[in-house]
Amino acid sequence: MSVVKPVRGTHDLIGEESRRHQHVIQVAKKVTSLYGFEEWTTPVFEETTVFARSLGETSDVVSKEMYCFEDRGGDSLTLRPEGTAGICRALVTNGLTQSLPQKAFYAGPMFRYERPQKGRYRQFHQIGAELLGTSTPFADAEMIAMGYHILRELGIADDVVLELNTLGDVASRKAWREALISYFQAFQSKLSEDSRNRLEKNPLRILDSKAPEDRALLANAPALKEHMTPEAQNFWDQLRVALDQFNIPYKVNPYIVRGLDYYSHTVFEFVTTKLGAQGTVLAGGRYEGLVEEMGGPAVPSIGWAAGIERLALLLEQSPKASVPIVIIPLSDDVHQVAFSTLQDLRYHGIYADIAYKGNLRKQMERANKLNAPLALLIGEEEAQRQVVQVKDLISGEQAEVALTDLVAHCNMKLAK
């Protein structure tokens, strides 16, 4: 019988990889809580319209990458390809648009049918944050600062560069969009097939194209700064002042875009050179109109998301695995005392394990293999006198400890 393999583009999180994954989530939860964010958990699948509306029918995600299926009731459902749409839907359906702003943090799996590569999978995992109901550039700066804070706590801030851009307000973007269409139409025959398809519906996406024939045309393409309204320019100026006040280093990259209609003003990416060509590890921007797409009111918002797998790859060191205290019963007759002692340690928050069988040598070998700092030896005499022999496996010292004092003694030894 052949071995059953995981589906292409998926992977198991076990051992060190799992510890790295969980470390990223735990650090993100800790940092975002300092900024007043609470965790929201939305379903891993939604009605297809949730993502088709939010991402746009012409986007690559909707047209090429979404995992859609029809359930037994005939409804079209989709595994979530990103987290923002579900958060905005949850804001509306839970009646939270009346109590803004809302600060949401999320972590979990996302699904996209794309070519697997280093740090990218078809089932991948993200952390993300959405600040819903604010329209000030200082909120944008704080969101970026929070993302930077997470990267710093993970020890990878020195490995990334913050790239920043503005998409202006609606009026700025409309004028810029018309100028881009006019410019690229003159070179339509030289554009890639994807960019020709985007030209009328989504010309901003051409600026983000990786196709060489498209990149060659970008140097002379119309720039947003030529079409910025005074209000949009003021927002952009205030954002950069605020980032300077937060002491967040950045560089302006005019080619960062979010080609969807609801993005406005701030867009940004934290980029590394350590993961190959696809170097973005945390990215986001300001958006408007998305909550309205879910049936709610106009709610200006800003958010970002980061790939957990990619962040985990950048960690300098793997989080250490927890090590247990190991209880070694020296005969079957002491199992009752051994098991009650084991559970008492656990109830008091101490990681403990037990060597079930084998002679003393094999049981000690097991304790050493687990890197246990302490071994608790219980024989028939110890069980009768309600004591254990505590052997320090690092120093080799051994002491007799009453069961009533065992928790305090173990905590004292582990604290050293």
Automatic annotation (TrEMBL):
Signal peptide: none annotated. Its EC number is 6.1.1.21. It catalyses: tRNA(His) + L-histidine + ATP = L-histidyl-tRNA(His) + AMP + diphosphate + H(+). Pfam families: HGTP_anticodon, tRNA-synt_His. CDD domains: HisRS-like_core, HisRS_anticodon. GO terms for cellular component: cytoplasm. SUPFAM superfamilies: Class II aaRS ABD-related, Class II aaRS and biotin synthetases. NCBIfam families: hisS. This is Histidine--tRNA ligase. It comes from Commensalibacter papalotli.
